[in-house]
Amino acid sequence: MPETIDRARRRWITTAGAFLAAAPFARAGSAWAEPVGAPGKLPPLAAGARTGFGALRQVEAGALNVAYVDMGPATGRPVLLLHGWPYDIHSYVDVAPALAAAGYRVLIPYLRGYGQTRFLSDATPRNGQQAALAVDALDFLDALKIEKAVVAGYDWGARTACILAAIWPERCKGLVSVSGYLIGSQAANAKPLPPRAELQWWYQFYFATERGREGYARHTRDFVRLIWELASPKWHIDEATFARSAPAFDNPDHVAISIHNYRWRLSLAEGEEKYAELERALAAFPNIAVPTITLEGDANGAPHPDPAAYAGKFIGRYEHRLITGGIGHNLPQEAPQAFAQAVVDVDAF
């Protein structure tokens, strides 16, 4: 068994045992530090006020060489911000500077299949299942020697953040999740939805076909732009905003990761055996005990659960916030003030 797989499996066995016993393991050498200053109410910030980040950093983490933003004081409390599909790190272009100015160390990695993040080996499966993305995030924190962080995200990023909070709560100071509890399972996804709900998942059925895979590969940017417009019908997406994110989808593994993610959900593609135990734990839909704020935009055009359906999954201190003003699926970019404030507030819980 290759050392990287063996190490990952040993770590999962250890953490799974801790999770099932409801007694998270402790680790020495914490990188947790007190923040610079005492953030409370953030000053006003406007969506679209900033246009980009400085130079990205790179770190080898698990199966990946990860490209990421590292903003704010090195001694600040870490905040891990995770983007979704089909978006990129620019969802946090306004959120990150606000949190950095408040004294946080803000970390924003490109997920596998996005931007400058690359697999270390051509032999690694281009796997998009939820467990693989969660282990990527854990490997990223380990590589930077971050013991504990506020974790926050939307879409795929929210699902990953929820998994971290559920399975490795000792690594999470708090959770901010757009659209709430998003942990899934193949068994749950096998159950048919009412027709109107199925219609919202049209792209998942398209991706189940070879025509869909080829279509996404040929027309990636047009497809992404369409998803943005459908998911955020009241968000004015100017050409410059889209152009900043578009290169992230030129990653050579982007199509493969995207297609595998949606085919895996429908049991049309296999996952990796090394994640089987983690997926079994996730299929039990574990509760989340870390302090949590969930957010929802009032104009989210993407499939999303009703807040009442998931409120009971958060058994620690919990608050839900509806963000008004025509806010769609990409909430951090459309409503950066609300998202950044939620990070600060959950940190203070």
Automatic annotation (TrEMBL):
Signal peptide location: 1-33
- Looking at the UniProt record for this protein, which Gene Ontology cellular component terms does it annotate, in alphabetical order? membrane
PANTHER family xref list: HYDROLASE, PUTATIVE (AFU_ORTHOLOGUE AFUA_2G14860)-RELATED, MONOACYLGLYCEROL LIPASE
InterPro entries linked to this entry: AB_hydrolase_1, AB_hydrolase_fold, AB_hydrolase_sf, Epox_hydrolase-like, TAT_signal
Q: For this chain's UniProt record, which GO biological process terms are given?
A: acylglycerol catabolic process
Source domain of life is: Bacteria
Task: Give GO terms: molecular function aspect only.
Answer: monoacylglycerol lipase activity
Q: Pfam families this protein is in?
A: Abhydrolase_1 (PF00561)
Where do the AB hydrolase-1 domain residues begin and end?
Answer: 78-208
Q: What is this protein called?
A: Alpha/beta hydrolase
- Show the PROSITE patterns listed in the entry: TAT (PS51318)
Q: Which keywords does the record carry?
A: Hydrolase, Signal
